[in-house]
Design a protein that fits this description.
single chain; alpha/beta; Rossmann fold; 4-stranded parallel sheet; 13 helices; 38% helix; globular; Vit_B12_bind_prot
Length: 293
């Protein structure tokens, strides 16, 4: 199981709070999530970053920054030693660390990450906190333009039924339910998520459930699912008899961080999913679907 791809989505939100006051001279920022680090780089704040988690690996420059522990267990002593004037944290999995930092009067802001609206608001929030409102506004406008372009191109197309497999064994599948941003990506890309009726973010389902819903497309969202695991899963009766398997529409070569990490690159993930769901309207190499398994 690939922690860097799944760590953000496996934990449910514990609480949510944002203080939108602008931080005076925010020159020492600590990021406690890969998606937040990507937002900081998007807004040209890389020179102000003094610490990130070991899971923060994009862009490449982030790998060289000072590390403050794992996403799920940030090192408080290390964070404090960096003397940050702003700590940016995700809305799940870090309530104890956040409480301690606030007790020490270190300004700590929680950024939501459960859906596309949250991602947009987080970018806007970071821009407001760091005097980067203009860059944030331009970035959000460009992101929305890309979304609108996809929506327009798929508007009159049939809606293929899709299954995103986040993690799997031959008998158990973790997928994306109605409350996940992955479900939203599938909808925006002109598809129908076969698990949209499940009122959870990331439910576990069986191969028999998959056969009942009979997806047209199956997308593997975790590169740590080896070819052997994929092969074993696809030979299960509930999977091998689906339209997706019979037609060869199985995809496992996408970069999972594009659609499992709730940051700015979700738009690229949306575009990848749209290309897979609608190869007939994305003809060129640049627009075509990724290589099939």
């Amino acid at each position: 199981m690939c922690k860097k791809s799944l760590i953000i989505i496996l934990l449910f939100p514990l609480f949510f709070a944002i203080n939108l006051g602008k931080v005076a001279e925010a020159k020492r920022i600590v990021s406690l999530a890969p998606s937040i680090t990507e937002i900081l780089f998007l807004l040209n704040l890389d020179e102000q970053i003094v610490g990130v988690t070991t899971n923060c690996d994009y862009p490449q420059k982030a790998e060289k920054l000072e590390k403050v522990g794992l996403f799920e267990s940030p090192n408080l002593e290390k964070i404090i030693s960096l003397k940050p004037d702003l700590v940016l944290a995700p809305d799940s999995g870090q309530n104890s660390a956040i409480s301690r930092l606030r007790d020490l009067n270190i300004q700590t802001v929680i950024l939501p990450s459960q859906n596309m609206k949250d991602v947009f608001e987080s970018i806007e929030t970071v821009g407001a906190l760091t005097d980067k409102e203009k860059i944030a506004k331009i970035s959000l406008y460009k992101m929305q333009e890309r979304i609108n372009k996809i929506k327009k191109r798929v508007a009159d197309q049939p809606c293929p039924r899709a299954l995103v497999i986040i993690w799997a064994t031959p008998n158990t599948i973790m997928t994306a339910g109605r409350k996940s941003f992955i479900n939203e990506l599938i909808n925006l890309a002109g598809g129908k998520n076969i698990t949209a009726s499940i009122d959870y973010c990331y439910p576990m389902i069986s191969p028999e459930f998959v056969l009942d819903k009979n997806p047209d497309v199956i997308i593997f969202g975790n590169s740590s699912n080896s070819k052997e695991i994929v092969k074993d899963l696809l030979t299960q009766p509930g999977i091998r008899n689906t339209r997706a398997v019979r037609s060869g529409r199985i995809y496992r070569n996408l970069n999972p961080d594009l659609f499992l990490r709730p940051g700015p690159r979700l738009i690229a993930g949306l575009e990848e999913i749209a290309r897979i769901l609608h190869p007939n309207i994305f003809i060129t190499k640049e627009e075509g679907p990724d290589e099939k398994t």
